[in-house]
Structures are given as structure tokens and as C-alpha cells.
Write a structure and sequence with these properties.
Rossmann fold; binds P-hydroxybenzoic acid; alpha/beta
């Protein structure tokens, strides 16, 4: 066989390489989110945020076309294992993105760990996911429940409040957020005099509001989100409490909910890792693009979905789309500096965002930043050994 000249060999090699890249199958992304129920709007905005970033990359991450598989988890932990197995076993997805509800996400994380499927949590705060149940293949682009609770506790104590009551849904997110609040509030000299709760996703708040009125604490700390948060904030106002006992909360009680809450939300002070009016070119560009694309405003959930895609993009770029190369994939994700609309963040050794928590006040249709509650707050990652 005649020997090809060097130029031809090079061209042949380059063509073969391009062909191999072109032949990479689509990247299968499994979105397991609530698309019905009290958290439906949250799931919807996470998906929009995720798709926005992928679209900005021409529909590809790490050179691979992104293909979506979707399951509505209904925020129903009892169905979560069956639901996640639809994505892992039936659809054979490459990566799991989900979910919103902590109980659902804990079941997903167990299945992801067992099957060694890459998983990115775009909301659910369950502390154990980046704590006792942590795993090298499980990352979070959102927060741990402890974080916003702790940040709000710092601010409530700084405001001089001394006697607090808490109110939430009785499940991991509510209980862990209240724990974070209590830790910081009591460190700051306050005392939580009573914890109130009701089962998720109930919204019969009346008896609990009557109890708050009777106890007259200095401040109430609440964790609710989505449809439940809309009703809670309106009921708190209608009971006459808004004028007598300041209501504070992690910012989920007023994020993505303001149009429905109307006047009842005006003036509420919360803390969160996002605020609508962060005046950086990054946030402005993100908000404009989101609004133009989807004809609606983004919120914290949209940001977390967008950043889940960004984090995945960093990992895939490092291995040129080859998910089998786990070591360099994880290494790149672990040391990512994510250029988020919320502000840049890194990941803790347990793979949870280390991020600033803002003080926000509701003004009109916006959660407006008025200060910083805690800078670069890292979840303690208790119990994580991987
Ligand atoms: C959760 O279940 O972890 C959760 C749900 C909704 C939120 C925040 C946390 O807004």
C-alpha cells in the first residue's frame, strides 16, 4: 500500500476525530420535577431555567445534543422511587436533575447513589443530600435547608427580636429550615418559644394563626413555598397579624408568588441566595433573556435550574462529553466557579453551593435586596464522608 503524505494523514485523523464527535449520542437528561400540585410553578421555572442555558449553548453540552425525559413527581415521596426508576431504568438517562421536594429528592439520591447516576439537585434542600447521604456523583445548584434558615435567624436576632415562634410544614424542608433559624437566632440572643406545624401540603392555617395571636411573639419565622406560601401570606394578613407580629421567612415565602399575594406581601423581609434586583450585567442579561424567551419573570427556581445546567456544562466540557470519565468529570464540577445570576459561587467539599445570603424586602412585584445577611455561607455538611 502506498504511504500517504503527512498532510493527508493529518487530514484523515482530524476527519476521523470529527466523525467520532459527531457520532456521540445525545445526552439524556432526566428532569424529575413537580409539574402539578402546590410546587408546580417551581418545577416549571426550574425546567425553563435549565433549557435557557442549554439553548444559549446551541442545544448542546460538552458537544452533545441534549435530549430531555420528563417525569412529574407530584411532590409525592411515596411515588419517588418508582418515578426515578422510570428515568434510570426505562429511559436510561445519563443525568438526573431533580427535584423540588426534599422527601422526593432523598429517594432520588438513594437511587442515584445505588446506580451511580450523575445527579444535580436544582432545589430540594434536604440537609442529608450534601450531609450524611452525600455521594461523589451527587451535586446541588441550590442550597441546603439549613442555609436560608440560618441566615434568617441571624437577621431576626440583629433586628432585636427576642421571642420567636416558627410555623411550617412538617417534613424535612420545614423542620431543617426551622432548625437552622433556631441555631442562629438563639446564638444571637433570641429564644424560640414554640414551633408550630401542619402536614405538607395542607393550608388550613386558622388554628395555628389563632395560637400566634394568643402568644404574641416578637417575630414569626415561616417556611412555606409555592401555592401554600401564597395562601399563608394572605391568611396571615387577613388574620390581622401582619400589623402586630412581623413575619419573616426564608425567601421562598415570597419568591414566584408576589402577583398572587398582592398587598399582603408588601414590606415582608426575608433572606435568600437570590434577589430580583441584583445589579450585575450577568443578572440583567439573564432576566432579560428569560423574560423575552418565556414571557414571564424568572425567580430563584429559574436561577437554580439555569445553574444546574451551567454546572453540568462545566463537567461535560472537561471530559468532552464522555461521561464515563468520572474522575475528571467530578473534579471539574467540584472546583467549578459558577457564574450565576445570583453572584458567583463555588461548591463546598460536600458539593453544596457556598454563597451569599441577601436580605430582601418585598416592594411591588419584586424581592428587592436591601443588604447582605451572611457572606459566603457554607453548609456545615454534617455527616458527609465522601
Ligand atoms: C424542599 O422541599 O426542600 C423545598 C421545597 C420548596 C422550596 C424550598 C425547599 O421553596
Amino acid at each position: 500500500m502506498p504511504i500517504a503524505p503527512r498532510r493527508t494523514l493529518f487530514t484523515l485523523a482530524a476527519t476521523a476525530c470529527l466523525a467520532a464527535q459527531a457520532q456521540q449520542p445525545p445526552l439524556k437528561v432526566g428532569l424529575m420535577l413537580p409539574f402539578t400540585g402546590t410546587y408546580a410553578a417551581l418545577g416549571d421555572n426550574i425546567e425553563k431555567g435549565f433549557r435557557l442555558f442549554v439553548n444559549e449553548q446551541g442545544g448542546k453540552l460538552g458537544g452533545r445534543e441534549v435530549q430531555y425525559f420528563k417525569v412529574d413527581d407530584e411532590s409525592e415521596p411515596a411515588k419517588a422511587t418508582d418515578n426515578v426508576n422510570k428515568l434510570i431504568k426505562r429511559d436510561q438517562v445519563d443525568v438526573l436533575v431533580g427535584s423540588v421536594h426534599s422527601g422526593v429528592a432523598l429517594a432520588m439520591a438513594r437511587a442515584a447513589k445505588e446506580s451511580n447516576t450523575l445527579m444535580i439537585v436544582p432545589n430540594a434542600g434536604a440537609d442529608a443530600i450534601t450531609g450524611a447521604q452525600c455521594a461523589p456523583n451527587i451535586f446541588r445548584s441550590s442550597f441546603s435547608n439549613w442555609q436560608p434558615g440560618y441566615a434568617t435567624g441571624v437577621v431576626a436576632a440583629q433586628k432585636g427580636h427576642r421571642r420567636a415562634m416558627t410555623i411550617t410544614w412538617n417534613y424535612a424542608a420545614g423542620n431543617e429550615t426551622v432548625k437552622g433559624f433556631t441555631e442562629a437566632f438563639e446564638k444571637g440572643g433570641g429564644k424560640v418559644i414554640k414551633d408550630l406545624s401542619l402536614p405538607f401540603p395542607n393550608v388550613e392555617f386558622q388554628a395555628l394563626l389563632t395560637e400566634i395571636a394568643a402568644q404574641k411573639p416578637d417575630v414569626v419565622f415561616a417556611f412555606f413555598a409555592g401555592g401554600g406560601a401564597v395562601k399563608f401570606v394572605k391568611d396571615y394578613d387577613a388574620a390581622g397579624l401582619k400589623k402586630t407580629v412581623p413575619l419573616m421567612g426564608s425567601g421562598f415565602i415570597t419568591d414566584g408568588t408576589l402577583e398572587a399575594q398582592g398587598a399582603s406581601a408588601q414590606g415582608l423581609v426575608t433572606t435568600l441566595h437570590y434577589a430580583d434586583n441584583i445589579e450585575t450585567p450577568r443578572n440583567t442579561a439573564f432576566r432579560n433573556k428569560f423574560a423575552v424567551t418565556f414571557r414571564t419573570n424568572p425567580d430563584v427556581y429559574a436561577v437554580q435550574g439555569y445553574d444546574a445546567a451551567q454546572l453540568l456544562g462545566v463537567g461535560l466540557a472537561a471530559v468532552k462529553g464522555d461521561l464515563a470519565r468520572r474522575e475528571p468529570l467530578y473534579a471539574a464540577m467540584n472546583k467549578a466557579l459558577v457564574d450565576s445570576p445570583r453572584g458567583r459561587f463555588t461548591l463546598s467539599p460536600q458539593r453544596n453551593p457556598v454563597q451569599d445570603f441577601y436580605i430582601r424586602e418585598v416592594k411591588g412585584h419584586y424581592n428587592v435586596m436591601t443588604g447582605i445577611a451572611v457572606k459566603a455561607l457554607a453548609d456545615p455538611g454534617r455527616g458527609c464522608r465522601h
